[in-house]
Amino acid sequence: MRSRLWDWRPEEVHERQKLGTRPAPEIRPATYLFAARALRDFGDGFVAILLPVYLLALGFSPLQIGIIATASLFGSALLTIAVGLLGVWRDLRQLLLAATGLMIATGIAMAMVHEYALLLVIAFVGTINPSAGSVSVFVPLEHAALTREVTDAERTKMFARYSLVGVLASAVGALAAAMPDFMGTLGLDRLTAIKLMFVLYALVGVIGGLLYARIPRRRRAIGPEEASALGPSRAIVFKLAALFSLDAFAGGFVVQSLLALWLFERFDLSLAAAGMFFFWSGVLSAFSFPVAAWLSRHIGLINTMVFTHIPSSILLMMAAFAPTLPLALALLLIRAALSQMDVPTRSSYVMACVFHGMVGTDSTG
Fold first, then answer.
1. Taking the CB of residue 80, how many other CB atoms lie within 10 A of it?
2. Of 60, 34, 82, nearest to 257 (Cα)?
3. Planar angle of CA 18, 22, 24, nearest 5 degrees
4. Is 174 exposed, middle or buried (0-12, 13-18, 19+ CB in 10 A)?
5. 191: Cβ–Cβ under 8 A, 6 or more apart, which residues?
6. Which of 38, 127, 137, 26 is nearest to 81 (CA)?
């Protein structure tokens, strides 16, 4: 679709002038990516909370639930590595559509399967996201596609908006996690209601696939020597990967599903109350992203990552020893306002390294 008048042939312009119309404005690919991210995070938002509730209802222990969450994260990591290798040769749109197909299959399978071994396999190969965050095979593909759409000066701001949209959608999804309780008032048993939510997760994948299908094909023709390495950015990318792996290892202990399970088991928190808590947690995280973009322009990307992450970790440790539910929730909410500020800055820094061969120097852009 052509968005500017001078992109149209003279006879087309003349015909449009006779009809009193102008060419319709083009929708940027970033708009479809933002919308797809919002839908996907909406689904992840309620699935992350309902996953432990669903598994408890099936009779599994907290240990077994933790193993399923671990399998899910480990499978996502391997799938992300595979996508990184395929992304050099394949069109990003094709890979996003394939990931969407996997999301649809995951939702349907979760609603139908009760056996623990099969659920473990589904968690490993599927797209179930116990963290309800940016731990997904979709994320690197969307990052690569979005980076093509903006200038260097706008990159951090764009990633802040991208993260903002996703976390707000995840917060709304957390509220939707209370739907099984609502459906229970209509006479539907809780287990069936949760299964319907997994079907909704699959439907979200269908709509997301329709959005990804609108992204234009942009396959880059490159030689084997260019595809084999990251060029001058190879060393710094490996260092960053090691650092982020350490951070992710620690974060794996408090992914949203396990945090919800802890709140359910320790404080007997209701499903509706958990949804409300994770909603406000998501809202606070979302509105920290524009602050992170502003802060990075003044103190740099790396400093923004460091000086927001340290206090958030301290707050998490304090919440673990909180004697009452209100105090634990208050500490966790304050942590939520800080813990995700490294997300857009980290994404911007990594993309700068990969696309421009930046070798270890901080940037404020």
1. 16
2. 60
3. 145
4. buried
5. 54, 57, 58
6. 137
In sign, the C-alpha dihedral spanning 50, 55, 57, 61 is negative
Instruction: Give residue limits of the domains in the chain.
Output: 26-219+227-356
> What are the tokens at 262?
């802890």
pLDDT, position 30: 86
Domain spanning 26-219+227-356 has what CATH number?
1.20.1250.20
What's the CA angle centered on 137, arms 134 and 138, to 5 degrees?
Answer: 75
| DSSP letter (8 states) at residue 287 | T
Residue-wise pLDDT for 107-116, tens only, equals: 999 999 999 9
Task: Provide the token pair at 297.
Answer: 């322009």
Which burial class, exposed, middle or buried, applies to 212 when counting CB atoms under 10 A from its CB (0-12, 13-18, 19+)?
Answer: buried
Are 32 and 211 in contact by the 8 Å Cβ rule? The answer is: yes
| Residues 48, 285: Cα–Cα separation, whole Å | 16
pTM: 0.77
The residue among 243, 340, 236, 204 whose CA lies nearest residue 284 is 340
Contact 286, 42 (CB under 8 A): no
CB 213 within 8 A of CB 96: no
Asked if 91 and 216 count as a contact pair (C-beta separation under 8 A), the reply is no
List, for residues 1-55, the tens digit of each pLDDT value: 344 333 344 444 445 445 554 444 557 888 999 999 999 999 999 999 999 999 9
What is the 3-state composition of the chain as percent helix, strand, coil, each rounded to the nearest 5? 75, 0, 25
55 and 47 Cβ atoms separated by less than 8 Å: no
